[in-house]
Write a structure and sequence with these properties.
Chain lengths: 260, 260, 260, 260, 260, 260
C-alpha cells in the first residue's frame, strides 16, 4: 500500500537519475518484509507487509531515507504464530527462497553505492531466513572486497513496554499469539479502516499450544478463525498510539545506530 | 500500485474467508511480474511491475478473476532490452531466485484449491526463469498427484499489430528496444501521469547493438539516459489505446484458453 | 556424551538387527540437536548438544524410545542468544546445511519403518532451520506416498514456570540471555561437573541489546566472556531440579502427543 | 561431429602441452552449445549442436582460435520454438544444470590462462541460462580478483537480412518457427547430407500459437511432425550460402570485438 | 569421436521418429561419460570420453542398444589418478553439476519410455557423482510412480585379470596410476593413432603418493608430464587386445544383467 | 565415543578460552568422519565413526593436536562396500549435504585462526564428497584472500601391508569387502568389546559382485547379514596390532606433511 505522504521516498516510484542523486547523501535504505498469510476473517492477508511498509515509511521519512518495494511473500506460517499452513490464502516461500531474495537485493543495493540498509520485518516467521540472507550477502560482499551495515528488526520490538501494559492491562499474551489480534487490528484500523471488517471479528478462544510443535501441522490449538488472541478491544485510537510510539522508538534507535 | 477500481480483486487485500469463498467459483488467479529497473530519467523504476499489474487487474476484472501481489524484482537487465546492470537503481535477482519464487507461489496456490493461473510478465528478461519456475512447480505437483493449468504471457504480445503500425508509422523498433520508450511512456502517462517527468525525456539516439552480447556488460550501445528508443511521441491518448487494445486481446485469448 | 545408563537406547551403539527388532514396537525416535558454540570460559563448547542429548536420553528411557546420534554443529550464533560469530571456537553451519541434515535423516528413518520422531533442540538459533528441514522431508514423503509424525521442541520450553521463578526469584531474564548462564551451568554441574570450570566464571555484566540486530556482528552488548547473564548462583542441586522437572514435563507432554 | 578440416582446433583432441603452448597467443576459445531435441522426421536430434559446432569451427579457423567440446544437451524445448517436451528423444536439462555447466567451464578456462571466450548457441531455449552461467562465473572471478571477456551469440543473428529475404521471398517466419525447417535443413544438407532424410519431410502446416504459452505443454499448435515451418525449399546450395554468409558476418563482428 | 561403424546407434544422429520406433524394442541406452583432462604430452585431453564412447559403441552394437552423446566434462582431477587440477587444459565440473547432468538425462530418458540405461564411465573421479545422480533420479522417479534400471560401470573393471597380468608381467600398478599410461595409450593407438604423439612420450618416473591426499593440490608426486606410470610398452596390438577382451566381458555381464 | 585418555583434546569439551589459547601453537585440527550404517549383527552401526574417532584421537595425541566432534552420518552405503541402502538402520546423507558440512566446518575453523586440518575418514563412501567439500571451502577461502592446508585420509591406507598380509595369510579381500569383517571386528574388540556381539557373527559366504553396480540397489551379492567377508578370525589382539601400526604410520606421515 503506497501512502501518498511517503510516495516520494519509494525507490520504485522514482527515476534512476533521481535515485542516483539521492544516493550521494548516503541515505538509509529501508526494505519492508511481510507475508501473504491469513489474518482472521476481519483483516486482509497482506497485513504483515502493509504494517511493515507503514512503519518503514514513517521512519524513513523522519530519517530522510529511501524505501524499497516490500517483499510481500514470507516464510511458512507456524501454528503458534500465524495459525499454520492449513489456511487457504496463506502463500509462503521455502526458507531458501526468502534467503535468496534478501541476499540478491542487498548485493544490488551495494552495487548502487548504498551502504546502510534497514530490513523492517512484519512477520514473525521470517526472522531467521532474513538473517541468513544478510549473512550470505555479507560473506559475498567480503569476497568482493566491500561491506555494508545492515539492521534487521521486527518492528514490534520497539513498541514501548508501557504502551503494551496499558493496552492489555498487564495481560499481554506475547508477540506470537498477537496474530490478527488487538495490536494488528488496531493499527490496521488506524491506517486502512476500509480494509478491516470489524463485524467479522470472531469470538474464538485464544490459541493454546503445548511446549512443542507438531508436523504435519494439524490445526490443533488454532482457533478456527485464525485469530490467535482476543481482538475485540481493538480501536483506531490504540492503533495510532501503537504506530506513533513504535515509530518514535525506531527513529531514536536508528538515529543512534547510524549516527544521524 | 493499487488502483481503487480493482482493489477488490487483490488477494492480499481480502481476508482468507473471502478468498476461500471466491475460490469455490474456480477463478483464474493472476500473478503480475515486473522488475526494479532503470526506465530513463522520466519514468519510475517500478514501471514493468506497474504496467503488468495494470494489465492483470483489467483482464482479471473482465474475467472475474483474482490477483496476487506482483513480484516487483526481476531478472538481470540486459543491455539490448533494459540497458543492463550498469545503472544504479536496477535491482535484479539471480535466475534461480526468481524461478524459486514462482515455483513456491504456484505450489501454494494449488494447495488453496486453485487450478488456473495466469502469469502476466512485464519485463523481457524474466521470461525464461518464469518458465522454469512453472516447470519445476508442475513437476512437483505431478509428484504430489495433482496438476494445474498455467499461462505465462508477456502482455505486449497481445498488442494488435495494427495499433503498433499506426503508432510507429511502420517503424516499430521491436519489443526489446521499446524500453522506457514510446509504448511504456504512453501507458504510464495514461495510468499515472504524476509519475512521469516528460521534461526529463532525453534526446539520445536509440540503442545500437551487434549480433552478440558482451560480458561483463560495458554499456556500449546503450544511450546514457537508459532510454533505448525515441519516446518523444508518447501521449496519454496513445497509452489508452495501447492498454485498451491489449487488454481486449488478452481477455479474448484467455476466455478461449480457459473456456470462460 | 554417552551416559552408560542410556547407552542401550543409542541407535549407533546397537546392531542393525537389534534396531530392526526394536522398530517392530513402533518406538519414538529421538534426535538431539545442539551446536559447537562458545559457552563462556567455564563451560565446554559442546554444551548445547550435551544438554539436548541428556534430555533426550532420559525422556527416551521413560518412553521406551530410541536415540539417534546428536547433530553437534548448529546454526550461526546470534549476539543476543549466543554472543555471535565473533568468538573463536563457535563453529556454525549455513542454514541450508542444517536443514538438509534434518531432511536427509528423516527420509532415512522413514525408510527404516519408523513413523514417530522427536527432535530435541538445545540451541536457540537452530529452531527455524530444523523446522524447514522437517517441512522439506514431509513434502518429499508426501510425494513418496507416505508420512510420519515429527515433534520439534526446545527442551527449555518444558521447564515449569514455577521452577524458573523460584530459582530466579522472579527475575528470569528470558531464554535467549540465559546463554552459558545459571540454567546451563547448573545442569552441566549436575551432569558433568568435571567439564565445568567454576573458577573461570566471569563477573561480566549481563548482555544488553537494542531492539534490532546489526550485521556484520560487532560484539556490541556482548560481555567479553560470552556469558550473557549472571551464573554465580548455579549449583548442581539446581541442575538436578531443572533436569528432573523438565524431563517430567516432556515425558508427560509426549505421552499425550503419541498416546503412549 | 568433428570435421577433419577443423580437428586441429579442438581442445579435446590436443594434448595439454599443445594447448598450453597455443594459449600463449591469447586465442579466442569457442564453446558451442546445442541440444538433443526433435528436429522433425528428417533431421537428426543433435542438429542444434552440430550446427553450432560447424559455425564455431569455421569462425575459430578464421580467427586462429580454439574450440571446446560442445554442450550437447540444452534447456527444455518450448512449443513455439522446438515443439516442446512432448516428443520422445528431446532430452533437456533443468535451467540450473545448464547454467552450472557454463559457470564451471568458464571458471576452468580462466584458470588455464585464457581470457576470451565466445559461446556459440544453436538452440533458442538456451540463451538465458547461458547468460546466467556467464554472470555467475564473472561474479566468482571478480571475487577471485580476475576477469575475462565473454561473448554469447545465437549464430542466426548474424545471417544477413538480405540472405533471408532472398531465400524466403519476403516471408521469413522468424527464428523461432524456423525449427527443423528451411534454414536448418539447408545447412544440414550442406554439411552432413547423409544425416538428412529428405523423403521423410512432412507436409504439415506450420506451427500456430496464441500470444501466450500454456503449461503443462499439450502440443496444441505444434505440427505432429515437429517441423514448425515449411522446409520443402531447402537445398544444400542454400545451406552453403547461409553458412558462408553467417560465418563471414561473425568473423567480422568478432574481429572487431576482440581487435583481431 | 563418432566411429562410422557405430553411428547408426547414436541417438543424436537419428530422427525422433526413428528413435521412437526403436524404443519399442526396449533397447538398452548407453551413456558414456569422460572428462577433459590432461593425458600427458602424447594423448589428447578428451581421452577418457573417447575411450568410454568406444567401449559403449561396441557393447551397444553387440546388444542392439542405442547410444547417447557422451558427457565430455567430468569431475575434478585428483593428483593420484589424473595429476590434479594444476594442469592447463584440465576442465572440470563441480560435483553437483555432474550429478545434475546425470539426473536430468535419466529423467528425460524415462519420459521417452526407456527403462534400461548403462552409464559407461571412463574417468576415475566421476564415479561417485554419477552414483549420486542416479540415486537422485531414481528417488524422483519413485515420486512420479515409475522406475528404471541403471547400471554404472567403469569399463576397466571388466578387463580380464589375465590380460592385465600378461601385459604388465605381474606389475600392474593399479587403475589409478594407469593414467595416460600403458593401457590408455595402447587403446588410443588401436582406435585413433593419429591422435597419439608417441614421440612426446616422457621418461618420467611414475607418480608416488603418500597414504593421504593434500589440498590445495600442489603437484607433489605428480610427474611433470602428467603421465602417472610408464607407457613405453604401449602398442596398438595391446590396445586391440584390451578393447576386445573388455568389450567381450562387458557384453557377457550385461547380457546376464538385462537378460538379453 | 569419548575415550577418557583423549578427552582433553576434544574441542567440544573445552571452553572457548582454552581453545583460543591452544590455537596460538598452530595445532593440527582433526575431524573424524564416519557413518550410521549396518555393520552386521555383531557390530554397532556407528562403527565407522567410532574407529575414525579412535584413530584421530591417538594421532592427535601424538602430534599435540585438537579434535572436532565427528560427523556421524555419511554418504549412501553401496552394495559392494557396505551392503547398500537396503538395510534398516543405515542412515545416509545426500552427497551435497555431506559436502556442505565439510565446507562449513572448514570455513569456520579458518575464521578461528587454524590453518591445518586433517579429515580422518572411516567410511569408504564418504571420500569424494569430503573431497568436494574441501575444494569448495578452499575456493571460498581464496575469494576471502586466505587459505589453509587440508589433509584427507582413509585411515586404512596407512595400515602396513605386512600387517595385512600376516593377518590374512595372503588373502586380503580388499578394503571394500572388509566391511564389518575381520579388520573392523578386531579393532572394535580391542577398543569397545562390550559393543561387539561375537555370538551373532554370521556364517555367510562373502559378498560377490559383478564388474558393475546396479540401481535401484537390490541386495544381489550382499550376504543377508551385511557382513561382506569372513570375520571369524577377528581378535582383540589383532585389533591392537592394527590400531597401533596404523596410528604409527599416520603419525609418521603427518609429522612429515606438517613438519612437526
Amino acid at each position: 500500500m503506497i501512502e501518498a505522504a511517503y510516495a516520494h521516498r519509494r525507490i520504485d516510484l522514482m527515476s534512476w537519475t533521481t535515485y542516483r542523486d539521492r544516493l550521494a547523501e548516503d541515505p538509509v535504505i529501508f526494505l519492508p518484509v511481510g507475508a501473504l498469510e491469513q489474518h482472521g476473517p476481519h483483516l486482509p492477508m497482506g497485513c504483515d507487509a502493509i504494517l511493515a511498509e507503514a512503519m518503514a515509511a514513517r521512519v524513513a521519512d523522519e530519517l530522510d531515507g529511501l524505501q524499497l518495494p516490500a517483499l510481500r511473500y514470507g516464510y511458512k506460517s507456524q501454528a503458534r504464530s500465524g495459525g499454520g499452513q492449513i489456511f487457504p490464502g496463506t502463500t509462503s516461500l521455502d526458507g531458501a527462497t526468502l534467503t535468496a531474495m534478501v541476499r540478491d537485493i542487498l548485493r544490488e543495493v551495494v552495487r548502487h553505492g548504498a551502504r546502510r540498509v534497514v530490513i523492517v520485518n512484519g512477520h514473525v516467521e521470517n526472522q531467521w531466513f532474513l538473517t541468513e540472507g544478510i549473512d550470505l550477502a555479507l560473506r559475498e560482499l567480503a569476497h568482493a572486497g566491500t561491506s555494508m551495515k545492515v539492521v534487521r528488526c521486527e518492528y514490534w520490538n520497539y513498541t514501548p513496554q508501557s504502551v503494551l501494559e496499558s493496552m492489555f492491562e498487564g495481560a499481554f499474551p506475547g508477540v506470537d499469539l498477537e496474530h490478527a489480534a488487538l495490536l494488528e487490528t488496531s493499527m490496521m484500523l488506524a491506517l486502512h479502516p476500509q480494509l478491516v471488517e470489524l463485524a467479522a471479528l470472531p469470538e474464538d478462544a485464544p490459541g493454546a499450544f503445548p511446549g512443542h510443535d507438531v508436523y504435519p501441522q494439524d490445526g490443533r490449538g488454532v482457533p478456527a478463525s485464525g485469530v490467535l488472541a482476543p481482538a475485540r478491544a481493538a480501536s483506531a485510537e490504540k492503533g495510532v498510539t501503537l504506530i506513533e510510539s513504535t515509530v518514535a522508538a525506531m527513529v531514536k534507535a536508528l538515529r543512534c545506530e547510524f549516527v544521524l
